Amino acid sequence: xxxxxxxxxxxxxxxxxxxxxxxxxxxxxxxxxxxxxxxxxxxxxxxxxxxxxxxxxxxxxxxxxxxxxxxxxxxxxxxxxxxxxxxxxxxxxxxxxxxxxxxxxxxxxxxxxxxxxxxxxxxxxxxxxxxxxxxxxxxxxxxxxxxxxxxxxxxxxxxxxxxxxxxxxxxxxxxxxxxxxxxxxxxxxxxxxxxxxxxxxxxxxxxxxxxxxxxxxxxxxxxxxxxxxxxxxxx
Length: 235
Ligand code: SF4
Description:
The chain is an all-alpha fold. The chain folds into two domains: 103 residues, Endonuclease Iii, domain 2; 101 residues, Endonuclease III, domain 1. The protein contains 13 helices and no strands.
């Protein structure tokens, strides 16, 4: 990430040619498309607020794990341990068993206990809402920190994962090499009302239409405004 004093110049160099007005229209069109045409836009509904500890646990379990497996594993664990305090009362092996078959389930069990311990010792058992504090927790990167802040605390944050990063580059709204860089540019250019919902919208859109390899450009609802930067083969 650039230093603050460099950021204006850096942002300029890493911004694409698509205007913010066109980007906003594209996001709204995607939301309508995903909600079914003719429906009222309900961007806020897409990112409903949840318990921050539950969001955090779900994020840790989700690493390299399919959504269906994550949902079941997280529900099983949170039914037994809904708080950091109750999670620490469960042995690491039992946590592993509860979250199995999530990928790296043994390491994740260790991480979840380490996070719970730090929450109790440093944060009075509560999940903090500022990014710097969240990044102090074991195993928590920017993507997780932003998701916990946005979905768990309902505060402005932009969670940039591989889908948001890829689609923003294809649209030519950003010119970046890594999700952290994309987050930096979006923070500066994207209107705040889209900060929270962009993740849920682009994840769904990136799985259905603007897929990583051979995106479905011929049926894409925003194909007219898209510059398709870096897109080779498409359907
Ligand atoms: S036109 Fe193609 S590259 Fe552009 S957003 Fe749609 S699917 Fe993605």
